[in-house]
Predict the structure.
Amino acid sequence: MIKIVNERTKTDLSTADFAYDLPPELIAQTPLEKRDSSRLFVLDRKTGSFAHRHFYDILDYLKEGDTLVVNSSKVIPARLLGVTEKTGSSMELLLLRMQEDGTWETLVRPGKRAKLGARFVFGDVLHAEVVAMGEEGNRIVAFEYDKERYGSIYEVLDAVGNMPLPPYITARLEKKDRYQTVYAKTEGSAAAPTAGLHFTKELLEEVKRRGIAVAEVTLHVGLGTFRPVKVDRIEDHHMHTEHFVITKETADLINARRAAGGRVIAVGTTSTRVLESVADENGLLRPFDGETGIFIYPGYRFRAVDALITNFHLPESTLLMLVSAFSDRETVMRAYEEAVAQKYRFFSFGDAMLIV
């Protein structure tokens, strides 16, 4: 598997430079009834000015000829609750990614019950065995299920799995599809590309009607998205890798529209990482199917993205660092202070930000 990792940029910034105070009550626990009724914080990175709108107002900031780039990865019900085959003790598996041989890298709780050869059962239809020990305490697991009854592992997961909500969401999710974008297609993510959760099918149709293209890429979001940066020096952080695909058709479409003067507007940090992983010095994109470990933080020069739609991210996270690189750290941190003061909703089910 080919992997892309960018060259690290030296910076005087530390992880602590991306800390901010967030009252717990501003962490959104449930999605709004209407996806596009969330608030939209608009940041003009040239002037540093702010505007407070709603997400359905995004149309006011898009122009004919622009291209929205969305991540069409689909979240799988990756949280499995079951028991050990021997003793019936409770177990929890969180699927991280499928390996090339069909086994899965997983997080297992409690780990002491997941020794090599340990077997578990989930809902009487899915059996698992620990076949190898992975990095950072992860386990490599092989699954067994009735292949005549279920066409794929994803069908079994739909039957017995739960959505892998981030740890800061403690409320029960009433409908699985609300942690899924309306354009999700390809199974593989352990977390949602949350910037896209604000779009409705109707809003996307109106976007296209106005001469704005919607281009799809795929990046399977891993749980590394939520891992805190534990080092003081940003450039010392080990970035997780994620599998992504951009087809020749998509790359050619984006290249042609940008060459004609249209902007590329990335929907989310995942789409941004795809585009910046495959862009050359002139911003031209190439097709690719592989892994990216690109780590974007202040000092990085963007090549392919002209505007960014994103959510509000955790303090000291790689996602906040990426957003700060797209504008500048001081302006973004000032915007976050304003969002807190205006009581925006934060994180996965929270409100959106547009940086132009």
